[in-house]
């Protein structure tokens, strides 16, 4: 929550990409901006007025992201391709770490990359969940720009080496 973002912001040297997994995320935009968020991602499933929420995030000077749960089709974001700076495809069901990567994510990445390219959107595609050294290169080849690799990094015997391996994928 907010105290964690504030604490990380005090010591971070990189932009903070905050992924809100809450209902009515629009109620907390200003608070997360004040806490130090640079990118604020909301779930399409949790935002009643997604377009308005994305505009409000951008109005606060942050980059706006949209997250999609694994079973939400990428076509759900077709109306906001130019209103978001980032699209986060959840490749595990949200809720807890350590889950297995859902293979259908590769096709969703390809579909979303095609949609963004056709629309002339410069938005990034982020993958969150189950990312590791075995699937990173294939995700990048499918069109992903940003990979969120929690357990692959934090449970690795050499986290710095794992980060380097993922960057090289």
Q: What can you tell me about this protein's structure?
A:
Strand 2, helix 3 and strand 3 form a beta-alpha-beta unit. Strands 1-2-3-4-5-6 form a six-stranded parallel β-sheet. It is globular and about 40 Å long. Helix content is 38%, strand content 16%. Helix 1 (2-11) runs parallel beside helix 2. It contains seven helices and six strands; from the N terminus they run H-E-H-E-H-E-E-H-E-H-E-H-H. The protein has one domain: Aldolase class I (TIM Barrel, Alpha-Beta Barrel). By secondary structure, the protein is of the alpha/beta class. The chain has helices spanning 2-11, 29-35, 50-59, 105-119, 136-142, 150-154, 159-168; strands at residues 17-19, 39-43, 63-68, 86-90, 124-128, 146-148.
Keywords:
6 strands; 6-stranded parallel β-sheet; TIM Barrel; 169 residues; alpha/beta
Q: How would the blueprint of this fold be written?
A:
Elements: H1 2-11, E1 17-19, H2 29-35, E2 39-43, H3 50-59, E3 63-68, E4 86-90, H4 105-119, E5 124-128, H5 136-142, E6 146-148, H6 150-154, H7 159-168
Parallel strand pairs: 1-2, 2-3, 3-4, 4-5, 5-6
Helix pairs in contact: 1-2
* Helix and strand run: HEHEHEEHEHEHH
> Could you give the distance between the termini?
31 Å
Ranges with pLDDT <50 over ≥5 residues?
A: none
Highest CATH level, the class: Alpha Beta
Estimated share of beta-strand residues: 15-25%
Under the CATH scheme, the architecture is Alpha-Beta Barrel
Average predicted local confidence, pLDDT: 95
Helicity range: 25-40%
Strand order in the sheet with the most strands: 1-2-3-4-5-6
Task: Describe the sheet with the most strands.
Answer: 6 strands, parallel
The coarse silhouette is: globular
């Amino acid at each position: 929550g907010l105290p964690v973002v504030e604490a990380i912001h005090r010591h971070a040297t990189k932009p903070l990409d905050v992924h809100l997994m809450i209902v009515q995320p629009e109620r907390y935009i200003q608070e997360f901006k004040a806490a130090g968020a640079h990118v604020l991602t909301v779930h399409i499933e949790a935002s009643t007025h997604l377009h308005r929420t994305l505009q409000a995030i951008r109005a606060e000077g942050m980059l706006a992201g949209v997250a999609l749960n694994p079973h939400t089709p990428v076509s759900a974001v077709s109306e906001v391709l130019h209103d978001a700076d980032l699209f986060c495809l959840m490749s595990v069901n949200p809720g807890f770490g350590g889950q297995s990567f859902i293979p259908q994510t590769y096709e969703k990445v390809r579909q979303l990359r095609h949609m963004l390219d056709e629309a002339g959107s410069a938005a990034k595609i982020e993958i969150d969940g189950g990312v590791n050294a075995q699937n990173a290169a294939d995700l990048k080849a499918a069109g992903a720009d940003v990979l969120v690799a929690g357990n692959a990094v934090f449970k690795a015997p050499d986290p710095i080496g794992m980060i380097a391996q993922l960057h090289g994928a």
